[in-house]
Amino acid sequence: MVWALNAVGLPGVDIHWRVTRGRRDETIATSYLSGTPPYKLHVGCGLNILPGWLNSDYYPANKDLLHVDAEKSFPFPDGTFDFIFSEHMIEHIPYPSAHHMLLECFRVLKPGGTIRISTPDLNFLIALYGEKSNLQLSYIKWSQEKFVPWAPEATDTFVINNFVRDWGHCFVYDEKTLRSAMQNAGFDPVVRCQINESVFPELRGLENENRMPPGFLRLETLTMEGTKKTST
Question: Domain for residue 232, yes or no?
Fold first, then answer.
């Protein structure tokens, strides 16, 4: 396996640490890819460690996780993986970087492989400003109390303003924009899915709904799957 040490180095640290981290990452990746397929890459795993996946993050939470910078070239050969999953990560990098990330995902997927992207839905934010369901009202109250306690009242305006600026969000997608980005990277077909549901068993039950009160992640989330066509 070709491993690019320069793709796993973190800025601002000494070369010895980068090389040590690179060797550890090479061991993690090589060990995983020496197992039985399907091979599944989890990009931006955070604390949601998925069994049977090669879990990666820019800031790995422990020594058993792979460091991958989604804004740079992935340190894998072409056609390595059968599936790729990324949940609530792509919105944390600028749109041009996200385009590069999707191109890299396309490259490292096998023909016939599928990517699943979950990200906040711009339409969810717009809907918060209109007539609200009980779930939306509960979401606004929870979000204001948890993330904008300085707000004088729990209203849609404060929650929406915070959402587009907090947590390092760079770009909030709607369905047409994410679909276009995935298609421009080469994926076809691109389909919208319900959270934790997929025609592929390997892509079911992946989103981490337990990190929020019931129904809130489902309310927030846009999920799309794209497949890399097999050669004809």
Answer: no
Whether residue 153 is predicted with pLDDT greater than 60 in this model: the reply is: yes
Cβ–Cβ under 8 Å, residues 48 and 73: no
DSSP 116: E
Is residue 60 in a domain?
Answer: yes
Q: Supply the pLDDT for residue 20.
A: 53
Mark whether 164 and 192 lie in a shared domain: no
Q: Are residues 24 and 106 in the same domain?
A: yes
Other beta carbons within 10 angstroms of residue 174's beta carbon come to: 15
pTM score of the predicted model: 0.90
Assess whether 45 and 142 both reside in one domain.
Answer: no
The C-alpha atoms of residue 181 and residue 85 are separated, in whole angstroms, by: 16
43 plus 133 within the same structural domain: no
Diameter of the chain by CA atoms? 60
Mean pLDDT computed over 60-66: 92
Share of the chain above pLDDT 90, in %: 87
For the sheet containing 40-43, what is the strand order?
66-67, 54-57, 40-43, 81-87, 109-120, 221-227, 190-193
Give me the helix-helix angle, 134-147 and 156-165, nearest 10°.
60
* Number of domains the chain is built from: 2
- Same domain, yes or no, for 24 and 96? yes
Q: Print the domain residue range for 31.
A: 5-120+173-209+221-227
Is 108 inside any structural domain?
yes
Distances (CA, A) of 57 to 44, 46, 86, 92: 4, 6, 10, 12
Reported as a single tens digit per residue, the pLDDT across 123-141 is 999 999 999 999 999 999 9
* The amino acid at 190: V
Query: What's the token pair of residue 83?
Result: 């599936």
The two structure tokens encoding residue 20: 């040590």
